[in-house]
Amino acid sequence: MNNVMLDNLPTEWNGYKVNTDFRIGMQIYILQYDKEMNEYEKTTSILYLMFSDEYGELRDHPQYNELNECISWYLNGWYHDNTGSSKNTKRFIDYDVDQWRIYADFLQIYGIDLSVADMHWWKFNGLIWNMPRRLSSLMEVIEIRQKKIEKNMSSKEKDAIRNAQNKYALEQPEKEYTSEEKEKIDDYDRMMEEIRKQKETEQEALKQFKK
């Protein structure tokens, strides 16, 4: 277990260099709910986000089951509490919809300007999920999204909660995916071959343009 107070936050997994900036993790989560992209496009994007070098080329990276493990480690390795047995997959945060709440909270609570910050994804998560609830506009909105309407509430209270939840509602996934389905990278070899062919086509087109 990595201890942020004793150890440097990791930038490699089993010898593979991983891009760990917090913006990478945010983009991966945003990709999951992008309805305009198919699974192949999402997988390709995740690979380039996590493993591309400064020139945009893919570095050596894990494959097949190891790749799934690496992605899971990257996204969730910061979390050390027990996950519990809840099967609730409802979304309570959206890095696009909640962007200004997140930005303002970090600036006001921590004095961190996220538009220019250089921060590890794990550090970002440790800070965002430990913000003082009553000082954080994001935590207050999440609390509204999570709030349950109880039978003993008055009609006025129920209406107030419903109105607030409608205001801050997030679009929910149409299908509930298992962790295995989320981590699975389908047709990996075919995908890499397609990427290689696309690169060759782009290079050939560039040569013709220069002529």
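the 2nd protein, sequnce then structure:
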Amino acid sequence: MTETSRLDFDPIERAGQLWHEHFGEATDQMLLATSIMRVQQLMLARLDTALKPFGITFARYEVLVLISFSRAGSLPLSKIGERLMVHPTSVTNAIDRLETQGLVVREADGTDRRRTLASLTAEGRRVVDEATRALHDIDFAVDGLDAAQQRQAFGLLRAMRSAAGDFPA
């Protein structure tokens, strides 16, 4: 967001005031949910901007990193979707784009012909390394919080994810 497009007030706080006037209940919950969604938008914009020179989005970066973490150097597309918690169509789309860019290759699984594996190319490994440095340079867009606050925020969001059934408690 540019300086000229910034409001001179906090629109979420103002929405909270109006919410309280109109509905009365759940103001704190609405403020938190709306703030989380806005922070997600702001962070994603910064992360994607940092990754733009590499021709990837943060979603595609996550795919590349996940593959780079694999012991075998490749992962089935189904595992990528499972671990990133995204729909198979999203994985296929990301792999298609990464393959077109020469960052991954698709190959049949030699042990199970029904599965397709994705592996990083040498260029894909280079992009992961350089993109990771670029994200470190912007502190993964978590400015405004010191290390202790970052750990606390992670713990609070983890509790919310657990309550929503994102993973076993």
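The mean pLDDT is 93. Residues 108 and 116 are 5 Å apart (CA to CA).
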